[in-house]
Write a structure and sequence with these properties.
Number of helices: 6
Shape: rod-shaped
Largest sheet: none
Mean pLDDT: 85
Structural class: mainly alpha
Radius of gyration: 28 Å
Order of helices and strands: HHHHHH
Strand content: under 5%
């Protein structure tokens, strides 16, 4: 063996070390990508949950404060009822407009326009019909975004 040539065992160990390092780097990169995907999915799930919950709560608040319009002969809506309607509508619009992770789906589903149709409606049965359609669309969109089979 010449002085310039390394022993065979040094070459084998060296190549194993490089392979091990490369394997570790690839594994770390794959793990980081998986963690990022899971983080995005978790945030999407949270945003869908907040959106559906807030819109459901807002519809209930609106319905609770609509009896004066539903039944002829009752007096005009009180200032408190008007404030409740306005607050419910503003909260719903805020939650629709501040979505980050599901923004594209919110836009493609025309959620703000569909919400405005609900908030402007004064016929309770039509409002419920609009809400039921919107709620179904929200749940279906969430399932699709999150990869949940129905």
């Amino acid at each position: 063996m010449s002085a310039m040539q390394a022993p065979l065992w040094v070459s084998i160990l060296g190549s194993l070390g490089v392979a091990s390092l490369a394997s570790t780097i690839i594994s770390l990169l794959a793990n980081a990508r998986l963690q990022e995907r899971n983080w995005v999915k978790d945030n999407q799930k949270q945003e869908w949950r907040e959106l559906i919950g807030t819109l459901s709560f807002s519809v209930r608040r609106i319905l609770r404060n609509l009896p004066a319009l539903e039944y002829p002969g009752l007096e005009e809506m009180s200032a408190e009822q008007k404030n409740q309607l306005l607050d419910a509508d503003m909260e719903a619009r805020r939650i629709i407009e501040d979505r980050i992770f599901i923004f594209g789906r919110v836009q493609s589903e025309n959620l703000l326009e569909r919400w405005q149709l609900i908030a402007a409606e004064r016929d309770v049965s039509r409002m419920l019909e609009y809400w039921n359609h919107l709620h179904s669309a929200l749940v279906n969109a969430a399932h699709k975004d999150l990869g949940i089979k129905q």
